[in-house]
Amino acid sequence: MNPLGGSPGLQGVLALRQQILDRNEGLKALQQATTPPVSPPPATPDFGATLKGALEQVNASQSRASELAAAYERGEVTDIAQVMVARQESGIAFEATLQVRNKLLSAYQDIMRMGA
Q1: pTM for the predicted model, two decimal places
Q2: Given 11, 32, 33, 86, which residue has the most CB atoms within 10 angstroms?
Q3: For residue 15, how many C-alpha atoms fall within 13 Å in the half-sphere facing its CB?
């Protein structure tokens, strides 16, 4: 702009525009030099995948307990404590899964009541 307060000429406007563009480029270069590259956040498993994994673990625990019980009945496994511990573990895992299901169902019902 004209420092005397008059209207700037076309050359003055173009010069001012060029100064702004130069400063903008300088600021971009400075920012890129001082800012570390942003890496994407680590992928977190979604709720469905986590729940599916937990259910698969419970199923595996129950399968192992059933296999140990069948092996004990056939006489292949002689350690009754091992069989009983496996059955207790699978029972506890199932009970925990049932409690999680009940809590999820209760939370779902509460959310559905909010809209009414």
Answers
A1: 0.57
A2: 86
A3: 7
At residue 7 the predicted structure's pLDDT band, cuts being 50, 70 and 90, is low
- Inform me whether the pLDDT recorded for 115 exceeds 60: yes
Closest CA to 59 of 15, 89, 104, 30: 89
Sign of CA dihedral 61, 66, 71, 73: positive
The tally of CA atoms less than 13 A away on the side-chain side of residue 17 is 7
DSSP secondary structure letter of residue 5: S
* DSSP string computed for 16-67: HHHHHHHHHHHHHHHHHHHSPPPPPPPP---HHHHHHHHHHHHHHHHHHHHH
62 contacts 93 by C-beta, under 8 angstroms: yes
Contact in structure between 44 and 76 (CB atoms under 8 Å): no
DSSP classification of residue 79? -
**CB of 56 within 8 A of CB of 84?**
no
Q: How far apart are CA 57 and CA 50, in angstroms?
A: 11
- Say which residue the tokens 């895992």 belong to: 93
